[in-house]
Amino acid sequence: MTLVADYDRHGRVWDLAPATGLLSPAPGGRCHGFVHLPGHDEHAATAVYATGPGAGTLWLQYGARRWDGATVTVRQLSLPDGGRRFTVTGPDGAAHFELPYPAPDPGPFDPAYDWLDAVADDFFLWAADRLATEGSRRTLLDHFLTGFAPP
């Protein structure tokens, strides 16, 4: 089991069973990643977390499916119709996973709304950004292996 912080509901902690993707509420503790619970048009929880001693592995998981974050390419795309698409591509160049989803609603117009707000509102945008480069993956892996208090 791996403790993960809820990306969308601050202060909530979940115990993730990596083999199945199932979540159980946890009382707290040091978290080793983040999880996004299913929303509209999503069928499973999605998590980015670290496991393992020493160098460890940074994982991306959707339900029971999981990928080593260092071996896949992760992209998030905003579509012309306002929707979004999250894609995981394997080292062979084949799409291993694709999830279309509606863009999060930022609420009423806010002239101060910027990239940081967009990332905070969209787990998939955050995951694609964090898994984009070796440097950002390494930083996240180190942070997750150490563990952190849930926000």
Task: Provide an overview of this structure.
α1 crosses α2. Strands 3-2-1-4-5-6-7 form a seven-stranded mixed sheet. A three-stranded antiparallel sheet has the order 8-9-10, covered by helices on one side. It has 151 residues and is of the alpha+beta class. It is built from three helices and ten strands.
Spans of at least 5 consecutive residues with low confidence: none
Order of helices and strands: EEEEEEEEEEHHH
Strand content: 35-45%
The separation of the N and C termini measures: 20 Å
Care to count the β-strands? 10
Radius of gyration equals: 15 Å
Described by strand count, sense and barrel closure, the largest sheet is: 7 strands, mixed
Report mean pLDDT, rounded to a whole number.
90
Lateral strand order in the biggest sheet:
3-2-1-4-5-6-7
Q: Percent helix among the residues?
A: 10-25%
The secondary structure category is alpha+beta
Shape: globular
Counting H and I runs of at least 4 residues, what is the number of helices? 3
Write the layout of secondary structure elements.
Blueprint: E1 2-6, E2 13-17, E3 22-26, E4 33-36, E5 46-51, E6 57-62, E7 65-68, E8 73-78, E9 83-89, E10 95-102, H1 115-121, H2 123-130, H3 134-146
Parallel strand pairs: 1-4
Antiparallel strand pairs: 1-2, 2-3, 4-5, 5-6, 6-7, 8-9, 9-10
Helix pairs in contact: 1-2
Describe this protein with a few key phrases.
151 residues, alpha+beta, seven-stranded mixed sheet, three-stranded antiparallel sheet, 19% helix
Sum this structure up briefly.
With 151 residues, the chain is α+β, with helices and mostly antiparallel strands. The chain has helices at 115-121, 123-130, 134-146; strands spanning 2-6, 13-17, 22-26, 33-36, 46-51, 57-62, 65-68, 73-78, 83-89, 95-102.
